């Protein structure tokens, strides 16, 4: 079965914005505009919560929908996925510093 990373999905969504394809749902969302994209992000977010209350399969399905719509939002706002990765990375750095033990040899 094919696998698609978030980065590959993001790139494909961005390519739809740059080279629209007739009949593409992503293209339809970009044409509808930011408010429509935000509405979908809100709806899909709620569906993740409902899915989590039901089955893991439903949670996986709804999470994929939600992440897809988040990628559309990031592309619509011209935010590269690397900006999110950098933000996550800075939190990782912060956490690592918090949990760093002082080296007693240097005391
Ligand atoms: N990952 C997705 C993806 N997840 C969900 N969806 C679409 O999101 C829609 C969500 O369904 P809903 O019932 O909530 O919405 P709807 O009633 O169809 O539409 P609205 O009127 O509410 O906008 C469905 O039409 C799904 O096909 C997606 N559409 C595209 N992708 C990926 O996006 C990339 C580009 O695909 P195209 O958009 O087909 O070019 C490819 O990698 C696709 O796999």
UniProtKB/TrEMBL annotation:
Annotated EC: 3.6.1.31
Gene3D superfamilies, A to Z: MazG-like
Reactions performed catalytically: 1-(5-phospho-beta-D-ribosyl)-ATP + H2O = 1-(5-phospho-beta-D-ribosyl)-5'-AMP + diphosphate + H(+)
Organism for this UniProt entry: Leuconostoc fallax
Keyword Calcium: no
GO MF assignments: ATP binding; phosphoribosyl-ATP diphosphatase activity
Keywords recorded for this protein, A-Z: Amino-acid biosynthesis, ATP-binding, Cytoplasm, Histidine biosynthesis, Hydrolase, Nucleotide-binding
A Gene Ontology term for the protein's cellular component: cytoplasm
Record PANTHER family: HISTIDINE BIOSYNTHESIS BIFUNCTIONAL PROTEIN (PTHR42945), HISTIDINE BIOSYNTHESIS BIFUNCTIONAL PROTEIN HISIE (PTHR42945:SF9)
Name this protein carries in UniProt: Phosphoribosyl-ATP pyrophosphatase
Keyword Amino-acid biosynthesis applies: yes
GO terms, biological process: L-histidine biosynthetic process
Biochemical pathway: Amino-acid biosynthesis; L-histidine biosynthesis; L-histidine from 5-phospho-alpha-D-ribose 1-diphosphate: step 2/9
Subcellular location: Cytoplasm
Family: Belongs to the PRA-PH family.
Domain of life according to the entry: Bacteria
Main location: cytoplasm
